Backbone:
């Protein structure tokens, strides 16, 4: 779980020597409680945290991951603080209270409360900085009570719980901590932060050693969580209008949707490849003529877009959320009006002949995970240098 632990799983071993900014730090990374952080990833947030932990460790930092049970690297010194799959069990009396929230809500609440109480108490001097990636409100709400400075990455637009936690925080130097947003779109959405320092934009990054340039092919692909708001059914419509086969990959996050909207439409020209680990998914994307991205919601960033560009594969995407920041110009793909299947089909013919080498080179310059990690390192150094209560580095 910590840097230097020989039992730390191989997936977090450094792949290549990388640049380090500043002195090594002891960093606590808080992940999500619902899904383990391991391959195949449940979603972009889990993939991002996994990459971040690995790169930070390869740069010499001492990183501890607090995440869901079964995550890579949560079986060491701090395993007792892993978020258990079953979570907290109420007593019979408490469970009988008619005001009792749903069990999943209480499990999340208890997991984060237990961890934050530990970070405020017995673990108060164990870390130099805390990097929070959870979507839960408690880390932000309790940040002013901790000895250790906290950086929270905002992966989504505002939610009521997080807004409340931020607005209730004291308007002091520490406040609710510092913030980074995964896109300029998300930073703009978080105007509630204005009483405090607004979020820096630290765009998500892609591991260019895993998402390698591919040769392309004769088919299209779509990847992501298979849920209505990601709308792979519209990718099927667009591919058939374009007259090209389609391969779909991703976790069945909404089985009912898959059974009703996707499975009946599979056939010789549309195939479901399953929930793939990164090597297999990168192979699929790299062998695609183009990738279709069909969100019916405002994607905070669009990690699948960056992954596609890293493979040299152009993208046709609905113009929503943070996606236009990734598909920066027409040399990388095409943006079409949200929900416009006909426009997406028509754009396929335009993008399949784009220069794949130039697409890959753009990803290398602007979308790498190392570029992202360097920005986070600078944010950590700012926090630790200005923290009024530093951690005891001899602990």
Residues:
């Amino acid at each position: 779980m910590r840097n230097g632990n020989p039992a730390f799983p191989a997936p977090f071993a450094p792949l290549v020597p990388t640049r380090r900014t500043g002195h090594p730090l002891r960093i606590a990374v808080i992940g999500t409680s619902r899904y383990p952080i391991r391959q195949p990833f449940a979603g972009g947030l889990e993939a991002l945290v996994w990459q971040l932990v690995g790169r930070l460790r390869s740069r010499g930092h001492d990183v501890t991951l607090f995440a869901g049970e079964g995550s890579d690297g949560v079986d060491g010194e701090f395993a007792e603080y892993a978020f258990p799959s079953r979570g907290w069990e109420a007593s019979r009396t408490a469970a009988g209270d008619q005001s009792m929230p749903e069990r999943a809500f209480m499990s999340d609440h208890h997991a984060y409360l237990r961890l934050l109480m530990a970070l405020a108490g017995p673990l108060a001097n164990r870390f130099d900085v805390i990097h929070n990636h959870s979507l839960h409100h408690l880390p932000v709400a309790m940040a002013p009570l901790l000895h250790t400075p906290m950086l929270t990455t905002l992966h989504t637009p505002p939610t009521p719980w997080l807004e409340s936690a931020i607005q209730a925080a004291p308007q002091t130097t520490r406040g609710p901590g510092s913030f980074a947003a995964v896109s300029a779109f998300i930073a703009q959405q978080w105007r509630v932060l204005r009483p405090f320092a607004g979020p820096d934009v630290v765009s998500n990054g892609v591991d260019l050693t895993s998402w390698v340039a591919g040769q392309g092919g004769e088919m299209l692909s779509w990847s992501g969580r298979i849920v209505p708001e990601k709308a792979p059914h519209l990718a099927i419509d667009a591919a058939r209008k374009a007259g090209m086969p389609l391969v779909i990959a991703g976790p069945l996050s909404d089985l009912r949707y898959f059974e009703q909207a996707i499975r009946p439409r599979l056939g010789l020209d549309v195939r479901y490849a399953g929930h793939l680990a990164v090597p297999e998914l990168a192979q699929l994307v790299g062998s695609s003529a183009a990738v279709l991205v069909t969100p019916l919601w405002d994607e905070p960033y669009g990690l699948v877009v960056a992954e596609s560009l890293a493979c040299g594969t152009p993208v046709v995407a609905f113009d929503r959320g943070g996606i236009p920041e990734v598909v920066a110009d027409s040399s990388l793909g095409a943006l079409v009006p949200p929900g416009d299947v006909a426009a997406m089909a028509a754009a396929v013919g335009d993008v399949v002949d784009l220069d794949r080498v130039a697409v890959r080179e753009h990803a290398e310059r602007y979308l790498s995970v190392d570029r992202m990690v360097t920005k986070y390192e600078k944010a950590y150094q700012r926090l630790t240098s200005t923290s009024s209560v530093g951690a005891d580095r001899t602990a």
Q: What stands out?
A: The longest helix spans residues 103-120. The chain has 14 helices and twelve strands. The first strand starts at residue 26 and ends at 30. Residues 1-20, 388-395 have pLDDT under 50 and may be disordered.
